[in-house]
Specification:
It is built from six helices and seven strands, in the order αβααββββαββαα. The chain is α+β, with helices and mostly antiparallel strands. The strands form three sheets. Strands 1-3-2 form a three-stranded antiparallel β-sheet, sandwiched between helices. The chain has a two-stranded antiparallel sheet with strand order 4-5.
């Protein structure tokens, strides 16, 4: 409904505000819906990028967290580091979104954050389109037979490499 987009914007605001309050050099992780990273409007991402670098992101498939309404939400865990004043900004390609699947007769194109397009190991599912109450929507479907906790642990073990990339 009408409050849903407001709630998502508040979420982005909370992340941006929290990043602003980090001490220089400090790290923070945020759990947020995939919209923060995938939406065409990059305002929130640009705000964060003014003071912090993206270290890594992990996308969890739908069903990892069930929202109150019983809808399945695709969730990202975003890792940021607040830059020190003297440091140049890092890679900014995560401000952009990229098409990872072209539109077909039946389904629309899938566009996700450039970071996930370049780091498929950190997407713990398969990009997909599903039909929802508001028409076609993005989802990330779990890999069948994969234990999410194990997959998440494996992705987290890759994080130090991402930090020094």
């Amino acid at each position: 409904g009408p409050y849903r987009s407001l709630a998502l914007r508040l979420h982005d605001y909370f992340i941006a505000r929290s990043v602003d309050l980090l001490k220089p050099g400090a790290f923070a992780a945020f759990v947020t819906s995939s919209g923060t990273f995938d939406k065409a409007d990059s305002f929130a991402r640009e705000h964060i990028a003014k003071t912090a670098d993206l270290i890594a992101a992990i996308r969890l498939p739908e069903g990892s967290f069930r929202a109150d309404a019983g809808t399945d939400v695709v969730v990202d865990v975003l890792f940021f580091r607040r830059r020190k004043v003297t440091e140049a900004e890092g890679d900014l390609s995560w401000l952009d979104i990229e098409e990872v699947r072209q539109a077909t007769e039946d389904e629309g194109a899938i566009r996700v954050n450039h970071w996930f397009a370049c780091h498929p190991d950190f997407v713990l599912g398969t990009h997909a389109t599903v039909s929802g109450p508001y028409g076609e929507a993005y989802s990330c479907l779990p890999h069948p037979g994969v234990d999410l906790e194990r997959a998440l642990t494996a992705a987290i073990s890759l994080l130090p490499q991402a930090i020094y990339d």
